[in-house]
């Protein structure tokens, strides 16, 4: 499999970044939701937020790499037979997911550094506080962080459902090529093949 994308397939780098980030986004969201249920005396009360922050910084780095790679690569065209409005909608949702994820990660950074302390990333390195002193910074950023996170999860769910719909109903290569699997003939191509065969038989 090639490293770069082409008009019909994703390269292994884009595929690896996608499947690295997708479960990480869901996992960080689940961790964030779970840790809000913890009480002060829970043993995970301090540890869970630290893991959440560290994963958030790593996700931000991965997002920057993914956006850079996307900017210098070809984006594969929609599967044959996909209506133009569906292709445009999918493209718009992808862009919105990237924008939301960036806003969520930056708002998380503003929450964590509101008191001027850096974010320690698993003891590997620290990210310093560059923006602080904004009135109610932690509360405002926290509210945005939560709203945007739920919005992102809704969009990601729709994105996943759309991929399953393409695979099981439309029977095209949309999901297969993001899994790095060889494309199967789409339903449209199968119908065209059947029609051509019937014509040749009648002749």
Please give a structural write-up.
The chain is mainly alpha-helical and 203 residues long. The chain has one domain: Fumarate Reductase Cytochrome B subunit (Up-down Bundle). The protein is built from six helices and two strands; from the N terminus they run H-H-H-E-E-H-H-H. A two-stranded antiparallel ribbon has the order 1-2. A hairpin with a 3-residue loop joins strand 1 and strand 2. Helix 1 runs antiparallel to helix 2 (47-71) and helix 2 (47-71) crosses helix 3. It is elongated. The two termini are 41 Å apart. Mean pLDDT is 88; it is low at 186-202.
Helix/strand/pairing category: mainly alpha
Strand order of the largest sheet: 1-2
**Tell me, what is the CATH class?**
Mainly Alpha
DSSP strand tally: 2
* End-to-end distance: 41 Å
Tally of helical segments: 6
């Amino acid at each position: 499999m090639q490293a770069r994308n082409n008009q019909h397939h994703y390269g292994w780098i884009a595929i690896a970044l996608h499947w690295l980030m997708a479960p990480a986004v869901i996992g960080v969201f689940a961790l964030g939701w779970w840790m809000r249920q913890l009480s002060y005396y829970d043993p995970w009360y301090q540890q869970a937020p630290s893991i959440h922050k560290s994963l958030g910084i790593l996700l931000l780095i991965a997002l920057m790499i993914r956006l850079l790679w996307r900017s210098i690569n070809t984006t594969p065209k929609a599967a044959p037979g996909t209506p133009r409005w569906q292709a445009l909608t999918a493209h718009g949702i992808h862009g919105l997911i990237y924008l939301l994820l960036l806003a969520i990660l930056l708002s998380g950074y503003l929450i964590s550094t509101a008191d001027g302390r850096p974010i320690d990333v698993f003891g590997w390195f620290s990210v310093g506080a560059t923006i602080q002193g904004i009135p109610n910074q932690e509360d405002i950023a926290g509210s945005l962080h939560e709203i945007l996170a739920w919005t992102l999860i809704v969009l990601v769910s729709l994105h996943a459902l759309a991929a399953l719909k393409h695979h099981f109903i439309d029977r095209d290569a949309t999901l297969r090529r993001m899994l790095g699997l060889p494309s199967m003939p789409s339903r449209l191509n199968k119908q065209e093949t059947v029609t051509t065969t019937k014509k040749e038989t009648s002749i």
